[in-house]
């Protein structure tokens, strides 16, 4: 029997096969990052770090992995906008750092939208599995902000500087299959197979040669943890400074207003595009 520890809107499930699952569990909001969610993610990531089992599985409930920062929580704060955004980014960054430095393998399962900070969170895994219909979009510059959650650190290392610049500056969308072709993720799978494939992958790692896997991961991560930490601090500083500016505030307000207008079809905005993209 799996043991679940409820910490809304993020929870931990400890499975008998030594897989420790960290789940974003606020599907009604697309697992968007406001301060409450970011702090819950930080706290649960640190709890997992204290006892990571044999492997960690990072996934999310609902249709989307994480649609990024909650723009509705960011706006209408006046002079306090930058401080709030910095607090959200700092808490989320502590989670990214803790997950990146885990000694055991980390498997990430991504379905639906991974936007803004959700991209960096997805990429923290050692093995990243995605549904074919998943959609990756940075989206920051569209609302006058810069990347956070390590996106501007992971992307050049994974896809190269040219493709990283394309993703960050133009906000182009990659499907799960695109992400696999670009080398952004480990592999894409059929949507209905994602959860089972991700858990089987994590369970296989948890049952493997633990000492060798930890040592191999240590070699792969050697010297990069401190570098990531410095980069995360600079990402938090920049996004907070821009959030205090008039251009970002106007763009966020315009984005939310546009997404609030009825669309064709059933009138609902697509998941990941209604109120959270950074």
Automatic annotation (TrEMBL):
InterPro entries: ClpP/crotonase-like_dom_sf (IPR029045), Enoyl-CoA_hydra/iso (IPR001753). Residues 256-278 are annotated as: Disordered. Keywords: Isomerase. The keyword Isomerase applies. Its EC number is 5.3.3.18. CDD domains: crotonase-like (cd06558). It comes from the Bacteria. It is an enzyme of class 5 (isomerase). Gene3D superfamilies: 2-enoyl-CoA Hydratase, Chain A, domain 1 (3.90.226.10). One of its GO terms (molecular function) is isomerase activity. PANTHER family: EG:BACN32G11.4 PROTEIN, ENOYL-COA HYDRATASE. This is 2-(1,2-epoxy-1,2-dihydrophenyl)acetyl-CoA isomerase.
């Amino acid at each position: 029997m799996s043991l679940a520890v409820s910490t809304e809107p993020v929870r931990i499930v400890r499975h008998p096969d030594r897989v420790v699952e960290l789940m974003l569990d606020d599907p009604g909001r697309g697992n968007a990052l406001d301060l409450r969610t970011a702090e819950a993610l930080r706290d649960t990531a640190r709890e997992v770090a204290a006892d990571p089992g044999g492997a960690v599985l990072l996934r999310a409930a609902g249709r989307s992995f994480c649609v990024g920062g909650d723009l509705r929580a960011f706006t209408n704060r006046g002079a306090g906008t930058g401080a709030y955004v910095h607090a959200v980014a700092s808490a989320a960054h502590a989670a990214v750092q803790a997950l990146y430095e885990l000694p055991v393998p980390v498997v990430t399962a991504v379905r639906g939208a991974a936007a803004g900070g959700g991209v960096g969170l997805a990429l923290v895994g050692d093995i990243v599995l995605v549904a074919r219909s998943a959609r990756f979009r940075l989206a920051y510059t569209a609302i006058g902000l810069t990347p956070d959650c390590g996106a501007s650190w992971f992307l050049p290392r994974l896809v190269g500087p040219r493709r990283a610049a394309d993703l960050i500056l133009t906000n182009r969308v990659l499907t799960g299959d695109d992400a696999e072709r670009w080398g952004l993720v480990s592999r894409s799978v059929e949507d209905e197979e994602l959860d089972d494939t991700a858990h089987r992958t994590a369970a296989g790692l948890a049952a493997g040669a633990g000492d060798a896997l930890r040592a191999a991961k240590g070699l792969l991560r050697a010297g990069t943890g401190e570098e990531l930490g410095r980069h995360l601090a600079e990402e938090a500083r920049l996004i907070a400074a821009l959030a205090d500016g008039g251009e970002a505030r106007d763009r966020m307000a315009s984005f939310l207003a546009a997404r609030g207008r009825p669309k064709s079809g059933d009138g609902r905005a697509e998941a990941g595009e209604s109120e959270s993209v950074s």
